Amino acid sequence: MAYYRPPGPPPDPALVRSLTQQQLALRERLRLEPLAQAPRFIGGCDSSFPTPDTILSVFVVLAFPSLELVEKVYSYAPVTMPYVPGYLSFREAGNVVQAFAKLQQHPDVVMVDGHGVAHPRRLGIAAHLGVLLDVPTFGVAKHKLFGTYQEPGPTKGDVTPLTDPKTGELLGEVLRSKDKVQPLFVSAGHRCDQATALRLTLACLRGYKLPEPTRLADHWAEEFKKEVR
């Protein structure tokens, strides 16, 4: 997901308390478990902000394991919530749900451009969306949000753990998706476990840094922006 951080005054403390309570309630519904069966379709989603006041969310669906593009949709809407650090998913999730509702072919699992449980309160955008949609999700992020790790080796497929700096809890894994590029941060979301998240990410690599579901979601976001400008 797009890490758009508009300038402005500090967030309203009452809003932060409310969002925290909502996150903790959503977290209570979170389930980390292997997929019941191998997926036939895998989704990818991404959001961006064409302007400070609008959001564009894209869903693509690919056949798995061929990764042939089956469907692509988007939702474009006004932004309804200010940016609050650590609560970006509330700014994006509603519009992503609207994009998901337009799909004719629902995916068996969704790869989200963002974090799953690799979040201070274990509810990044991938986990948040999984609970809202009640579908298996996991996150593949380009930047670390939370946790500590050792840099993985320089070769495609090299992996190191991402852990909570205080408790040592495994939050995700740091993956070198292509030789000598910056690593990705893979974490389970909802109804998906870490082993499955990493396995599917590796299975979706096709020579680019980003795996195909999120790479194509990002690609189509740029194309769809031309329609809404």
From TrEMBL:
Binding site for Mg(2+): 46, 113
Keyword rRNA processing appears in the UniProt entry: no
Enzyme Commission identifier(s): 3.1.21.7
Subcellular location: Cytoplasm
Highest taxon of the lineage: Bacteria
GO biological process, one term: DNA repair
Reactions catalysed, as given in the entry: Endonucleolytic cleavage at apurinic or apyrimidinic sites to products with a 5'-phosphate
A Pfam family this chain is assigned to: Endonuclease_5
Site annotation Interaction with target DNA: residues: 83
Role: DNA repair enzyme involved in the repair of deaminated bases. Selectively cleaves double-stranded DNA at the second phosphodiester bond 3' to a deoxyinosine leaving behind the intact lesion on the nicked DNA.
NCBIfam families in the cross-refs: PRK11617.1
Protein name: Endonuclease V
Protein source organism: Hymenobacter polaris
